[in-house]
Amino acid sequence: MPETAADPHSTNSADYHDPTVVDKDPYDVDIADFNVANPHLFSSDTLWPWFKRLREEDPVHYCRNSMFGPYWSVTRYQDIMEVDTSHDIYSSEPSITVGDLQEDFKLSTFIAMDRPRHDEQRAVVNPAVRAEQLRIFEPIIRERTREVLDSLPIGEEFNWVEKVSIELTTRMLATLFDFPFEDRAKLTRWSDVTFAIPGMGVIDSDEQRRKELLECLAAFTELWNQRINEEPKGDFISLLAHGSATQEMDPLEYLGNILLLIVGGNDTTRNSMTASVLCQNLYPDQFRKLKANQKLIPNMVSETIRWQTPLAYMRRTAKEDTTLAGKEIKKGDKVLMWYVSGNRDESHFDNPDDYIIDRVNVRSHLSFGFGIHRCMGNRVGEMQLRILWEEILERFDSIEVVGEPERVPSSFIRGYAALPVVLHARK
Ligand code: HEM
Predict the structure, then answer these.
(1) Whose CA is nearest to atom 6 of ligand 1?
(2) CA distance 286 to 270
(3) What is the overall mean pLDDT for the chain?
(4) Pick from 414, 122, 60, 59: which is nearest to 260 by CA?
(5) DSSP conformation letters of 312-350
(6) Are 270 and 169 in contact (CB under 8 A)?
(7) Is 416 helix (H, G, I), strand (E, B) or coil?
(8) CA angle 230, 233, 234 (to 5 degrees)
(9) Where is this region: Disordered (predicted)?
(10) Looking at residue 65, what is its pLDDT?
(11) CA angle 119, 125, 129 (to 5 degrees)
């Protein structure tokens, strides 16, 4: 195929993670050269006008070349919904992120599988997060949330991400896995390592990632060997070890599913917790509304998850030649559903850039996806945030953000490395 600018399947002019993108005005750049998967747009929080221009002028956009090769960006709410629910046309295999898997370290996980294997494996672990199980977890989560909040300094600066968001989500994960509580920091590390880009702070190389993830596999294999010899229980490892669709998994499939459950339950909820504090500061009128009416907490939680969109996109791969919003997508093309853009689509949400805790249609946000892969742990995440805010309002007058948040350099996980805050006690 000839390599011309007019041919959307050709490659030229890469901007391999060009850091200067943060100083550019997207309206001065040729739209054909857009590469919105550049992590610098996310670490600098300058992504918004780039996606706005795509929604307005080229809502299904082809990036001819990037560090990850060519890919399509789907940026409008309705088009994202169409891709996410058309499982026969768009596959979740081989990967749900834009980068390709390492040939010699192919992790297999049910989020990146199609039917029927996906449905069989999801059904095995789903009982750990069902409503009846959540009722058992609720008092445990509340007790741990109280413990963490009561240990915080009043009137002194600290990093909310480290002391609260990471600590609480890691405790929850240790509960879901029945993982040794004293070793729970390892879960945080494995979560951070899984999607980190080498050379951008967390790991230096893919080799280091592989080494650390094999340590994760060794730890979880030991737990599998214990659980398989015990009566079946409700935790993730016991469910996988005793489940008929998962008993025969090979080691990399077991590791892949463990990492899915670790990352799924960790980064996402952690970054929503941090965003919830940031938002109460950016929008003080909304915080006043919340304090005046605590019944708004569940809606505020949903609005935070919409506003933050902790997973910026999910990738699909076209199974056949198809058409989307007038664009011809070829079999094998990578298609990124940018939830972060769909959640700011003016045609679905009024004033989408604003944080409005009593927004009426907020529960139709895209942050949990739609279709057969819709987030399995959405109720766990929402419950953790609801309890956190019930307990915060009980204790503190406000949580003051006293510096700029430090954002994670990733275009997949929209998150925070640090948020400096000072707590003010209730008068
Ligand atoms: C605010 C919190 C969370 C957000 C924003 C979130 C987001 C997502 C998204 C976008 C997907 C993919 C949807 C798709 O492809 O259509 C997903 C899938 C998944 N999530 Fe979550 N998640 C959150 C919390 C959790 C928690 C707490 C857990 C586990 C305890 C979890 C476990 C999973 C699993 C296992 C999948 C794969 C489902 C499948 O492929 O069938 N998530 N999540």
Answers:
(1) 368
(2) 21
(3) 92
(4) 122
(5) -EEEEEESS-EEETTEEEPTT-EEEEEHHHHTT-TTTSS
(6) yes
(7) strand
(8) 155
(9) 1-21
(10) 87
(11) 115
Contact 177, 219 (CB under 8 A): no
* Residue at token pair 């919340």: 290
Å from CA of 265 to ligand 1 middle: 7
Q: Specify the range with the lowest mean pLDDT, choosing from 91-95, 266-270, 360-364.
A: 266-270
Whether residue 295 is predicted with pLDDT greater than 80 in this model: the reply is yes
Instruction: Tell me the whole-structure pTM to 2 decimals.
Output: 0.92
Which tokens in the block code for residue 350? 């009024």
Structure tokens that stand for 77 in this block: 């709410």
Please return the burial class of 2, using the count of CB atoms within 10 Å of its CB with bins 0-12, 13-18 and 19+: exposed
Kindly state the tokens that stand for 208: 């280091």
187 has a pLDDT exceeding 80: yes
Is it the case that residue 382 has pLDDT exceeding 50? yes
- As given in the structure block, the two tokens for residue 99 are 């980068």
Please, are residues 128 and 236 in contact by the beta-carbon 8 Å criterion?
yes
Cα 427 to ligand 1 centre (Å): 39
